[in-house]
Write a structure and sequence with these properties.
mainly alpha, 11 helices, 0% strand, globular
């Protein structure tokens, strides 16, 4: 029972992050499932089954708040589903000994990307209004869907920054569209895993716990997307993902590091993570001060009598 409550809280927290950043529900949830010893394919299957419900509620919530561009959803969601099914089939055919460190490497890379992206750059906002073409969104969807299934997460970390980097769609609509299109990806990945590993290896109580937490958080996250500083949140979440997956890799048969080496690496990560979050907080405050000063400077002077 305690584990189910923990999973529900993880689902809630992960969905709050995902709905605010457009990424990290799958990466965060899968990282925890791997940390407690779940089979990699079963972990990804569990998360994707839960995501069918969370992405449906999240998409509806984002649509209600005007955060969805349906043309983008169609152009990226359909190829994303194809890539997700292929990725699920690929992961299902890997042995557990091979799949666990492979998945941790993918998650680690995504965590590093999230941390550096949001710490250094924040959210790009140039070129707003220019169309996002199918020739860009189709291959992006295929790659993001494949990575999402094999890594237990990755649709958001791959898709959201790529669209944001184009600067053609405002951040809230980028996040809303990615979250909404993930519904198609979650269905395709779940079908692929059920065909590949069967339903016997999936703990549906865990699926329900993750789903319950995510469903509660989804409408809150859709509202918070306009209020939570993504830069700080991205840095914080990136650090969690990096630390957890480095721990998995250092304990794997690939490395099998000694206690001294592991704790030294953890200490370095903690210091770097704390510095990144501190930098993000300061950068966010500096941006707010600059924006406030700009507003004041643009105000017309009162007429003199």
């Amino acid at each position: 029972m305690r584990k189910l409550v923990l999973l529900a809280l993880v689902g809630l927290g992960a969905q709050l992050v995902d709905g605010s950043l457009g990424m990290a529900y799958g990466v965060t949830s899968t990282t925890l499932l791997l940390a407690i010893g779940t089979n990699p394919a079963a972990a990804s299957a569990t998360v994707h089954l839960a995501e069918i419900g969370t992405t449906l509620v999240s998409g509806a919530s984002h649509w209600r708040f005007g955060n969805v561009d349906w043309k983008v959803v169609a152009k990226i969601g359909i190829p994303g589903a194809v890539g997700a099914f292929a990725g699920a089939t690929f992961l299902s055919n890997l042995s557990t000994e091979t799949a666990a460190p492979v998945m941790s490497l993918i998650l680690l890379a995504l965590g590093l990307y999230i941390l550096t992206r949001f710490t250094i750059s924040g959210l790009p906002k140039g070129n707003l209004g220019k169309p996002l073409r199918k020739r860009f969104l189709t291959p992006l969807g295929l790659v993001a869907g494949f990575v999402d299934s094999t890594g237990g997460g990755g649709w958001g970390p791959v898709g959201t920054p790529a669209i944001l980097a184009s600067g053609r769609l405002e951040p809230r609509k980028t996040i809303g569209s990615i979250d909404t299109s993930e519904f198609l990806v979650a269905i395709a990945a779940s079908i692929g895993f059920i065909i590949g590993i069967g339903s016997e290896q999936i703990n549906f109580a865990w699926v329900g716990a993750l789903l319950a937490g995510g469903v509660i958080a989804a409408p809150i996250a859709a509202w918070l997307v306009r209020h939570v500083p993504p830069r700080v949140l991205g840095s914080a979440v990136g650090g969690v993902i990096i630390l957890t997956n480095v721990r998995t890799l250092l304990r794997s048969d690939w490395i099998d590091a000694s206690d001294g080496v592991r704790y030294s690496v953890y200490a370095v990560i903690w210091v770097a993570w704390a510095a990144a979050v501190t930098y993000s907080v300061r950068a966010y405050r500096a941006e707010n001060r600059a924006a406030a000063a700009s507003v004041v400077a643009d105000e017309p002077e009162p007429a003199r009598v």
